[in-house]
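REVIEWER CHECKLIST
Item 1: Sequence provided? yes
Item 2: Single chain? yes
Item 3: Sequence as submitted:
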Amino acid sequence: MSFPNPVEAVIFDMDGLLLDTERIYRVVLQRACAALGYEMTDGLFHSLIGVPGPAGYAIIRSHFGEGFPLDGYKLRIAEIAEELLAAGIPLKAGAGELLRDLGARGVPIALATSSARAVAERHLSRAGIRDHFEIVFTGDDVTNGKPHPEIFMKAAGALAMKPGRCLVLEDSHNGIRAAHAAGTMPVMVPDIVAPTADIRAKCVAVVADLHEARRLLEGR
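Item 4: Structure as written out by the authors:
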């Protein structure tokens, strides 16, 4: 395939795209809810994918009601996540190869994640890929989280690139919506949630994994 514009930079999402964390977080949230006497269904979990923390907590409280013990929920999430992720964080297939290839070719890259700064820094370091990124934008760095385009517009600006020359790799619906609204070239690499017809229409491509994304970029 050919891209609408030359690809001059690549912006990465983190969870579910570079890091194989979404399935772990599903277990974390299920256990945290169960400890408080609630059930985290797959449907509820799917609605939280790609959603910044504060907005996610609002979804949780709306679903369970005002009596939901949000502070206790946050505490249990932190405890359970630390237990499950302390040994290391697995990379998604092809992540290391793609990052090394882009670095070798001198392609500018940035990270744009909804996660908090402290979480992103810890996860990237544990996964062994922090050194690949000089530019990292997190949920702490924006006023409006995904699906608002702010984070991708800021990342493109930090790369000194026009958004239309930036390819964005995302796994979530909200991430694709944000990348599309920013005027970038979104490529979806589905993780837990498959693309809908509407989401596909916002993508320049949908690929099976980061190996396929790498081949796509090599043939650009």
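Item 5: Key structural point noted by reviewer: Residues 70-85 form the longest helix (16 residues).
Item 6: Recommendation: ____
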